[in-house]
């Protein structure tokens, strides 16, 4: 399970996600330069037009991105979508893209959400595994650009669907239109103390602060996280500089993070928030925290040689740093 958001500050837009799983695959930050040649299963090989940075595992020198953003300010995150997700056989009338290729396919050639929408008109997501060891994951995707516009892309039995995303968040099931409809059940939730409309005229004892959020769901399930992250994002302050913006951004994501031991997925197996990350879509600076180290770490895309043809890997910093004051 996962959560992804677009956060808008007074200066920039930030895009990223929480990755919630029961096991780590060795994911780490990876930069793909402009001249890296992607080998597609059903399309001609093509060099990337735009460099990108994000969290990936690298298999056979191929970056399998969980999420990434390119140098032009377009970001994409793939989130679990088990159940509704459906991939298709090869279609001779479409550009056949495997789901593990979708992030590099779009980020290497598109700069805006509008360009993504146009590219997806000719795409069919085909059911081809990366390898026998690495089968496809059932996914849907949040995509956003540096204007703050975002969309959700879902491949189901009825086809490939592209939805405008007015709340700029995504979790997992159900399908995105159902997640939006569910928000109506919580439309009266507010940061302010509630007015007494239950028994008007009676002086009720508002015994606690925060009663306006009393019915805000707090479960680890995807529908609860969707409601909560939509609320927290909508009411979080806009940062006035990079430090305050990044701090606000991670507080939003961490409001729905999953501690170990709270979401059992099998005998003695628990899903947890392996990492949280985000990119300033204007500057290309990539930030992350992980379960073992909640210090915010940063990688600046534009400090690397983006005209190369080899991947750049960064070791995930997993050792906690504590600032002792005495």
TrEMBL record:
Entry's family note: Belongs to the peptidase C59 family.
Reaction(s) catalysed by this chain's protein: taurodeoxycholate + H2O = deoxycholate + taurine; cholate + taurine = taurocholate + H2O
Every Choloylglycine hydrolase/NAAA C-terminal domain range: 2-312
GO MF annotations, alphabetized: choloylglycine hydrolase activity
EC numbers: 3.5.1.24
GO biological process terms, semicolon-separated: lipid metabolic process
Name of the protein in its database record: choloylglycine hydrolase
Pathway the protein contributes to: Lipid metabolism; bile acid biosynthesis
Classification via InterPro entries: CBAH (IPR047711), CBAH/NAAA_C (IPR029132), Ntn_hydrolases_N (IPR029055), Peptidase_C59 (IPR052193)
Record keyword Cell cycle present: no
Keywords linked to the UniProt accession: Hydrolase, Lipid metabolism
Pfam families in the cross-refs: CBAH (PF02275)
UniProt keyword annotation of Hydrolase present: yes
Organism in which the protein naturally occurs: Lactobacillus johnsonii
